[in-house]
Design a protein that fits this description.
By secondary structure, the chain is mostly beta strands. The protein is 0% helix and 48% strand. The protein is globular and about 45 Å long.
Length: 304
């Protein structure tokens, strides 16, 4: 694919600087992008038709990731449990979502990123303040949530292969993406093998998304870029992003050929401007980047 000079086409979809924008998710029925501003307890929405962004929901929980159900409702994975926000009517920004599942958190543990599998289960990863014992939970209808991985530094981006035979999981601190065999009938994962191994000098892999060719697109925190990795584990493209802390990405748009990229100013010196102590732009904008690729729709969650 040819991405030469694509950097000049990157544009913010919102004027706001977000503290920790994460988990962008395209809603094809609405032709809208949603994302979470985790530390501020917010969900935001961008309408592709009007080109306007607005605050969609605000509450007293940090939503580390969310998924859409087939009925249009949203499933929140938050620091207070798993909740469902029904399809909204009117403009009640402070609607209280309904609790679906409680989670026995450790101290200062919260969800950090999630994905939905082809059978409607949610795979949701957590991080702890000391970055020592994050977990990966599997959440499915009619069953109690269970931990399927632990000892994770920072559980981050996840996805499944197009043939639905493999599950990919990111642990950001060791700069590693692991590929597991995946059983769609049970949701079990097994036989881990290293799919990508980087280091701090090349950036920390964060959020991921899958394109229609089976390539995995990865946001690299600290490296001002996103990279495309082939199913064989080879980096086949790299695109510069005008922010240091690139947190996640998702493919959407009317033609499913726009990558939406979230960034963050977490840990910055000036959070209103997104700057570090030296005046470098850490991030905080959400960007749109049209590319010569095709995305794919995410699977709906069926957990209630």
């Amino acid at each position: 694919m040819n991405t030469q000079n694509m950097a000049i086409m990157i544009k913010p979809i919102c004027d706001c600087i977000f503290h920790l924008a994460e988990g962008p998710l395209w809603n094809p029925k609405e032709q809208c992008l949603y994302w979470t501003n985790i530390l501020n307890g917010e969900i935001w929405k961008f309408d592709e038709n009007t080109k306007k962004s607005e605050l969609y929901w605000r509450g007293d929980m940090m939503v580390g990731g969310f998924a859409f159900a087939a009925d249009g409702s949203m499933i929140f994975c938050s620091n207070k449990g798993i909740f469902r926000l029904p399809v909204k009517k009117g403009r009640d920004l402070f609607e209280i979502p309904g609790l679906i599942y409680e989670i026995p958190y450790e101290k200062n543990e919260r969800f950090n990123d999630i994905t939905t599998d082809p059978a409607g289960r949610i795979f949701a990863g957590t991080k702890t303040e000391d970055l020592k014992n994050g977990k990966l939970w599997r959440i499915e209808k009619g069953k109690e949530p269970i931990v399927i991985l632990d000892g994770i530094k920072i559980s981050n981006g996840m996805t499944f292969s197009l043939d639905q035979k493999y599950f990919y999981h990111t642990d950001s601190i060791p700069c590693k993406i692991t590929r597991y065999k995946y059983d769609i009938q049970t949701g079990d994962i097994s036989e881990p093998e290293t799919f990508y191994q980087g280091n701090s000098s090349t950036g920390f892999p964060d959020g991921v998304t899958l394109d229609a060719n089976g390539n995995i697109w990865v946001a690299f925190w600290g490296a001002s870029c996103i990279r495309c990795i082939s199913p064989a584990g080879k980096i086949i493209d790299e695109i510069e992003i005008p922010a240091i802390q690139v947190s996640s990405l998702n493919i959407g748009g009317k033609e499913m050929n726009t990558i939406f990229v979230t960034t963050a100013c977490e840990g910055g010196f000036d959070l209103e401007k997104g700057l570090d102590e030296k005046g470098n732009f850490l991030g905080g904008f959400v960007y749109a980047l049209p590319l010569n690729i095709k995305g794919r729709e995410e699977w709906y969650a069926e957990v209630f």
